[in-house]
Amino acid sequence: GSPVVAEQDIDVPPDGSVEVVLKSPPGRVRLRVISAENSEPIHGVEVGVHSEEHPGSSQQGVTDFLGRLEIDCLLEGRARLRFRHPGFVPNNEPINVSADGSERVFALSPGGRLPVTVSGDGGRPLGIILRARVPHETPSREWEWRLDKEGRGVLTGVPDEPVTMEFLAAGFEPILLRADEDLRPGSELRLEF
Prior knowledge:
Elements: E1 27-35, E2 46-51, E3 58-62, E4 68-74, E5 77-84, E6 91-97, E7 103-108, E8 112-119, E9 129-133, E10 142-146, E11 152-158, E12 164-168, E13 175-178, H1 179-182, E14 189-192
Parallel strand pairs: 1-7, 8-14
Antiparallel strand pairs: 1-4, 2-3, 2-5, 5-6, 8-11, 9-10, 9-12, 12-13
């Protein structure tokens, strides 16, 4: 579980014994994740619950074969859900965490597929793990793609929306691109770090 942090001023009895009783917070999130394309459940979606009212309070889990996930012992209030799965566009959704925890359904878009070639100094191929994120979102949506030794791969889960994506390669300056303008399906992306 998550570490419990609490403070309380108390009077310690002369024998020095103190009894501490911990109670689980009552909040619960029950959800099901499906494909926006065909309404089929998505297995293996990483879901993070990040409280907006209680900074540092977060939990995560992975959807089962029916696309379902239940996370208990959450602090009640406004939170954001963060969804990640290879082949689907990462997503953030607001949610109100409550004790009733009625099931909500979220649909993920498969997004586009885009061939990519990445090179570094002097056109040298970079066979790296290419990362990207949307820098001005909290929490930020993130992607990760493994490239071959020739610096080639296929970007999956590319969004078709007006967001700026920051492409990252260790030791290089980030490259900023607009998803809806620079990452068009049917084309090939060339990144030179």
